[in-house]
Amino acid sequence: MAAVAAEHGGDYLRRFVAETEWYNEIVLSAVAPGDWWRGLPHPVQSWLRNCVGGYLLYFISGFLWCFVIYYWKRHAYIPKDAIPTTEAMRKQIVVASKAMPFYCALPTLSEFMIERGWTRCYFDISEIGFSMYLINMALYLIFVEFGIYWMHRELHDIKPLYKYLHATHHIYNKENTLSPFAGLAFHPLDGILQAIPHVFALFVCRTHFRTHIVLLFVEAVWTTNIHDCIHGKVWPVMGAGYHTIHHTTYRHNYGHYTIWMDWMFGTLREPEDILKKD
């Protein structure tokens, strides 16, 4: 399994370690009082840094988007009766906040495997050229889209998985209970299972290290977007209109970034126009 290690050796792998050490230094030195964290093992430092980044992305994107659609542009995008209560959003924040440390174990694990040379990750785009970078990134995204679709679908179809894991997220089953904060309100294991195709892809596709890290955290912003009930109508994007249908029917629109997997496997349902009517 040590694909990169065999090809390049320890000096090459040290570049990945140095990169994550740099990330840790930037984030933890800014938020942690003192330098107690410097004595922690490197993976623990990386996990703490990922937690800080995860919480910041969740709260900044969630509060900004809620401010725009529920206060600044109140009723401009969604009907009055579709605005969730403050109590509903508070409960979503509690669920997501409790799960966040567990979610952040996944990028920490992927970094550890990359640093050990167990994956097909590479450090610099110049190593394969920009054209191959784009091709491999497309393959990565297709693999992730396929994996998340089937993971999500099986979390519905396998009854114990739904009952004990995914049902936690599906208590938000109406437009007036969905909000940007619902995007990460999962049972911790559910959230990890749905994101794990990002890690499996590292063993299949030549993946640029920084791009992988960015895409993992883009998940937090994306899930904020698809739970706001605003349908942007950008084909073939799996926007909030499609995902709102998923929350109300439970049997459609399992996809993540696009509608293609649902179209291919017969689970696509087109949304009605849920934008506010004049």
TrEMBL record:
Fatty acid hydroxylase domain: which residues? 138-267
GO CC entries: endoplasmic reticulum membrane
A GO BP annotation: lipid biosynthetic process
Q: Which compartments is it annotated to reside in?
A: Endoplasmic reticulum membrane
- Catalytic activity, EC: 4.1.99.5
Record key words, sorted: Endoplasmic reticulum, Lyase, Membrane, NADP, Transmembrane, Transmembrane helix
Q: How does it sit in the membrane?
A: Multi-pass membrane protein
Transmembrane feature ranges: 55-72, 93-110, 130-151
Which reactions does this protein catalyse? a long-chain fatty aldehyde + 2 NADPH + O2 + H(+) = a long-chain alkane + formate + 2 NADP(+) + H2O
According to the UniProt entry, its GO molecular function terms are: aldehyde oxygenase (deformylating) activity; iron ion binding; oxidoreductase activity
InterPro entries per UniProt? Fatty_acid_hydroxylase, Sterol_Desaturase_Related
What family does the entry list? Belongs to the sterol desaturase family.
Q: What is this protein called?
A: aldehyde oxygenase (deformylating)
Q: Which organism is it from?
A: Eragrostis curvula
